[in-house]
Every structure is written in C-alpha cells, then in structure tokens.
Amino acid sequence: MTSPSPRTPSPPDASPAEAAPWLILDLEGLTFCDSTGLAELLWILRRSQETRTRLVVAGASRTLRHMMATTGLLAYFAMAASVEAALVGETPAEKKFRTVEGH
Predict the structure, then answer these.
(1) What is the sign, positive or negative, of the torsion defined by CA atoms of 79, 59, 57, 20?
(2) Distance from C-alpha of 41 to C-alpha of 45, rounded to nearest angstrom
(3) pLDDT, tens only, 2-54
(4) Dist. CA 32–CA 34, nearest whole Å
(5) pTM for this entry
C-alpha cells in the first residue's frame, strides 16, 4: 500500500464549525491488493471513524474497486478518481456511510 496523502483539507463548502479532518488515501500507484490489503483498508476505515476523520480513497484502480464491490466493502468508503478530485470535493454525493463494527 502507498502512504496516505499528507494533506488533510476541510471539506469543500463546510463552515469552520462543521469542518472535520480529512484523510485522503492515495492508491493511484497500488498495483496489487489481496485480502491482507483489504483488511488494512478496513483497519484504516475503522480508525478514521473512531477519530471522526473523513476518509477518502483516491485513485483506486478498476480492479480494486471491483474487488471492494464484490466483497461488499465499496459502500463503506468515499471514493475519488484522484487526490486532486478529492481535494476539490469531487466525490460521489454525500451519503450516510455505514460504520464498521468490531468483531
């Protein structure tokens, strides 16, 4: 996995009171992901929920998006085509994201 982007902008069009920290996980250079990689994504998601940080996965390949959809994980993540798209708020329409429950 690649390192998360060091940028943590406030969401576009959010007032300072509504602004929450963001973490943009840049996966553009990721060429392989198996169940261990998916487990790491879930761990990152769980930690982001615990710290009330909005996680955006940027640059995921078509193969990774398919794997996430097949396993039912895609619905838990905000996705963006690139880091740049995430920075300007080009993610799918806001939705209520599911919370990952611990086992």
Answers:
(1) negative
(2) 6
(3) 444 444 444 455 544 455 789 999 999 999 999 999 999 999 999 999 999 99
(4) 7
(5) 0.71
